[in-house]
């Protein structure tokens, strides 16, 4: 294979050049880049964004095979605490069953199928609301009302079926596939990259979910590239590195990619901006940097001044010493994705986590969630984790007041996504065409998606050839 440098011609300064000039140096993991190699240039088929047949195959190949974020650990502090995780038609009760044990039970009564739980809470047992079959937290059937009428039922064989559970960085993951790859290897480079970011020391302070007017993949793709930023979010050009965002796709890594957008420096597309303009626009759009004036002395950059303000603010709100936090971690958008649908941010200023999934059985609607993970106090205490604020398809993100300035950006994206979904249905072109570098994470995502789809087509749901009946 010929090695092609897909970054050739991109605007300067690069992210690495900006980070190299920082006052407080970034951790090693930030000081490298890995542009994609050998991904190809073919168009991506459009049917995957609206075809019901494609959606049905995705359910088997993706949603019943991959590790998915279910919830945060701090949502399940006590034995019996649980949430309900739903994905298309599947439903799990994710429950703490012991001080060191979390399980995921299939949310369906083994008598006649009734959902055992419709929402989270804390229970000592799961009692079906229809006839009262009851399971204890260990998943054993303990009560069968009118048991004389079930001489044919062996209670020992009526344990609640389970999905697999794994934990990383305070996130609880589930996987429906009993033969799945272990979570540790599935995560690939993610734990190493997040070693400095310590998301296990965070708690979920804000959680907003919205029904999106598009396929789940379209929604996610709009949040894993910055190529659209100059046109869709033109307000940020004075302080955000859009055109010089760094995109990393690592050799041999299937499930993880990354992008870094620097902040506190203008877009390469604008010139002759004073540092004062950069600071004032950033403070205008992101109140986090507000408060007393940010003075930049001789030789000091807007970026250094804003980084210092961020360190002060995070230090004050978390009660921790943040003086050693690098400018990059304090300011930049350091965004990873974990296949298929989780997008956790690194850094220290405002770790966000997105999750994208289909909305029920409709390939043209999805659920997008934005979680804000704030630092726990040094002793590990924290306020109650946030309950989900749900927004309907017609409600803007700005209706969730807790989103603050992030809502405006998300609303700009949502307006576009509605047009993308409709435009793709109208298109007579069979595929979408991607930029080589700036959309390389999207191409990498589809490469992995295609690999899972192909594997499913080859082995089928139960591990036997899919064409075994033909
Ligand atoms: S359906 Fe659950 S007890 Fe009958
Ligand atoms: Fe956007």
Secondary structure blueprint with pairings:
Layout: H1 15-20, E1 44-45, H2 52-63, E2 68-72, E3 81-87, E4 90-98, E5 101-106, E6 121-122, E7 125-127, E8 134-136, E9 141-143, E10 162-168, E11 171-175, H3 183-186, H4 190-193, E12 202-212, H5 216-221, H6 229-232, E13 246-249, E14 256-261, H7 275-285, H8 302-318, H9 327-331, E15 333-338, E16 342-344, E17 352-359, E18 362-375, E19 389-391, H10 406-426, E20 431-432, H11 440-459
Helix pairs in contact: 2-11, 7-8
Distance between the termini: 39 Å
Write down the domain tally: 2
The helicity comes to 10-25%
Class by alpha and beta content: alpha+beta
Largest sheet: 7 strands, antiparallel
Number of strands: 20
Would you state the CATH class of the largest domain?
Alpha Beta
Mean pLDDT: 94
Bound molecules: FE2/S2 (inorganic) cluster, fe (ii) ion
Give the C-alpha Rg: 24 Å
In the CATH hierarchy, the architecture of the largest domain is Alpha-Beta Complex
Query: Rough shape?
Result: globular
Under CATH, the topology of the largest domain is which?
Answer: Naphthalene 1,2-dioxygenase Alpha Subunit, Chain A, domain 1
Quickly count the helices. 11
Lateral arrangement of strands in the main beta sheet: 2-11-10-5-4-3-6
């Amino acid at each position: 294979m010929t090695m092609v440098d897909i970054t050739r011609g991109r605007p300067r300064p690069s992210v690495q050049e900006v980070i190299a000039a920082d006052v407080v140096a970034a951790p090693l993991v930030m000081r490298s880049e890995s542009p994609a190699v050998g991904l190809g240039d073919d168009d991506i088929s459009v049917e995957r964004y609206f075809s019901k047949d494609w959606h049905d195959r995705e359910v088997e190949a993706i949603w019943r095979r991959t590790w998915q974020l279910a919830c945060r650990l701090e949502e399940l502090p006590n034995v019996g605490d649980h949430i309900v995780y739903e994905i298309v038609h599947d439903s799990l009760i994710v429950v703490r069953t012991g001080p060191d044990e979390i399980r995921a039970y299939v949310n369906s009564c083994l008598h006649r199928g009734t959902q055992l739980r419709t929402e989270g809470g804390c229970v000592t047992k799961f009692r079906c609301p229809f006839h009262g079959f009851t399971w204890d937290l260990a998943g054993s059937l303990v009560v069968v009302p009118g048991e004389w009428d079930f001489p044919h039922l062996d209670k020992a064989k009526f344990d609640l079926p389970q999905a697999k559970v794994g934990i990383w960085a305070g996130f609880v993951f589930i996987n429906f596939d009993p033969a799945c790859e272990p979570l540790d290897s599935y995560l690939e480079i993610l734990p190493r990259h997040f070693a400095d970011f310590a998301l296990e020391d965070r708690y979920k302070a804000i959680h907003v979910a919205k029904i999106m007017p598009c396929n789940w993949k379209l929604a996610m793709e709009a949040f894993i590239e910055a190529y659209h930023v100059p046109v869709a979010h033109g307000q940020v050009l004075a302080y955000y590195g859009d055109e010089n965002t760094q995109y990393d796709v690592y050799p041999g890594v299937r499930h993880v990619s990354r992008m870094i957008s620097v902040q506190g420096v203008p877009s390469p597309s604008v010139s002759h901006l004073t540092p004062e303009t950069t600071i004032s626009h950033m403070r205008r759009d992101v109140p986090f940097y507000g408060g007393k004036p940010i003075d930049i002395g001789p030789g000091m950059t807007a970026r250094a001044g804003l980084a210092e303000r961020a360190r002060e603010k995070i230090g004050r709100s978390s009660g921790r010493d943040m003086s050693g936090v690098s400018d990059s971690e304090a300011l930049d958008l350091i965004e990873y994705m974990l296949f298929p649908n989780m997008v956790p941010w690194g850094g220290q200023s405002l770790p966000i986590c997105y999750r994208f999934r289909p909305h029920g059985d409709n390939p043209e609607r999805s659920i997008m969630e934005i979680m804000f993970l704030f630092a726990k106090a040094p002793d590990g205490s924290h306020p109650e984790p946030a309950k989900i604020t749900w927004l309907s398809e017609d409600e803007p993100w700005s209706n969730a007041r807790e989103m603050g300035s992030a809502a405006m950006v998300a609303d700009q994206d949502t307006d576009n996504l509605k047009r993308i979904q409709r435009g793709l249905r109208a298109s007579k072109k069979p595929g979408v065409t991607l930029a080589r570098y700036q959309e390389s994470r999207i191409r990498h995502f589809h490469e992995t998606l295609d690999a899972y789809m192909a594997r499913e087509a080859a082995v089928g749901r139960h591990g036997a050839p899919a064409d075994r009946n033909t």
